[in-house]
Amino acid sequence: MTHAQELGTVVPQSWEDVALRRALAPDGFYRMTPFEVAAGWIPGFDELTPWPVEVDPGPAREAFERAVLRALLRPPCVIAFSGGRDSSAILAVAVHVADREGLPRPIAATHDFTGRGNADETRWQELLIKDLGITDWVRIPDTGSFDVLGERALNVLRTHGLVWPPLGHSHAPLWELARGGSFMTGEGGDEVMMERRVSVFTGTWQRRPRPSRRLLTAMLDNGAPRPVRRVRTRRFVESHDQHPWMLPGPREEYYRQLTTDRLNEPFRWSDSVRRAPARRAVLRYLSNVNKVAGALDVECHYPFLDRAFCEAWARECGTWGFATRRESTDKLFGDVLHAEVVARRGKAAFNEVAVDELSRDFARAWSGAGADPDLVDVEVLRRIWLEPDAYASTMSMLHAAWLAENGLPQVPEQPQP
């Protein structure tokens, strides 16, 4: 019996998120509050139904493969392949599983940002495509089309109004390839694979490095008593997540909420992994994106956020987990990923192609409509949009501004039954 045949006996358990269901608007979308639009983020975590202790999810890699297999069983299966570690892992595992099960290989679909600075992942993409022997690779030329005020994005705004996430339109050409089938992304990879509070202690215990100011600082940031960590965390948030376009009061509230989110991070690796999928921003992303894709008869899959995988990964990682992202990636995917992909540092940034010429042209002529004067400084916001690498957190404000400037509501009227 193949794994595909056995899958019929595996019932995928979804996350039960009562808070999200209650938060959805009558049209089925999650609609951001004015504060969330201005901040460009949805802070906080929801309470999810815990995994039944008595249910064994099996090895993490097997759980991940089952999640991928569900998508492969509904072809055409399209993978959003950027060349980063997460999408590379999904593509490599999907090819491995498809070949083992005698299923059609997935279609790798890529927004082509060749020559566009930090968004250009061509080298990493070609490295994996060649390594896996993939022949069905769709590259979508995306100069201008990826812009959050490009025609794709405007179609979403006219049809659905202001919805989270602001880059949801980027999936549109990939969904066209996947009509009647399935779509996979690496969403959630950072949440469940990245270093955690405990990682600095794991690395110290494993490597016995020489004492240094940097090491001591990291230990204080992650292991000190809560009152000490609160001060240090707040300082970190203010220096690394600046929101100069928000007025002082709202900005203070944003920093307070973000500090609380980071402060409440569990120390144990396993507990932190279990908490990661409960992030409100992620759950609302999935809800909204699934709704738009479902209307096109596309079934979305997110293997890194699969419930059985998250529980299996948490159990395997235990208290101490891994010291680095490289080590966790190697543990799960080292057998199918090129060594250079496993070892790479950094990741792509898409700000410069998301807030591009179309957005800058709009910003120059913008009247200030759509900006809440109690939350946002209009001129600071305009200046940020005119910069070559605008803050990603201002993209929702760009959508709000465009809708207001064009006399359109943030929430379209629903047709009468």
Strand order of the largest sheet: 3-2-1-4-5
What's the total count of β strands? 5
Unreliable residue runs? 1-13
What level of helicity do the residues show? 40-55%
**Structural category:** mainly alpha
N- to C-terminal separation?
Answer: 48 Å
List the helices and strands and how they pair.
Layout: H1 3-6, H2 18-23, H3 34-39, H4 60-72, E1 77-80, H5 85-101, E2 107-112, H6 122-132, E3 137-141, H7 151-160, H8 172-178, E4 182-184, H9 189-193, H10 199-207, H11 213-223, H12 226-240, H13 248-263, H14 269-275, H15 280-294, E5 299-301, H16 307-317, H17 325-333, H18 339-343, H19 351-354, H20 357-365, H21 378-385, H22 395-405
Parallel strand pairs: 1-2, 1-4, 2-3, 4-5
Helix pairs in contact: 4-5, 4-16, 11-12, 12-13, 14-16
Describe the structure in your own words.
The chain has 417 residues and is mainly alpha-helical. The chain folds into three domains: 3-193 and 272-351, HUPs (Rossmann fold, 3-Layer(aba) Sandwich); 199-268, no CATH class; 354-405, no CATH class. 50% of the residues lie in helices and 5% in strands. It has 22 helices and five strands. It has a five-stranded parallel sheet, with helices on both faces. Helix 4 packs across helix 5 (85-101), helix 11 packs across helix 12 (226-240) and helix 14 (269-275) runs antiparallel to helix 16. The model is unreliable at 1-13 (pLDDT under 50).
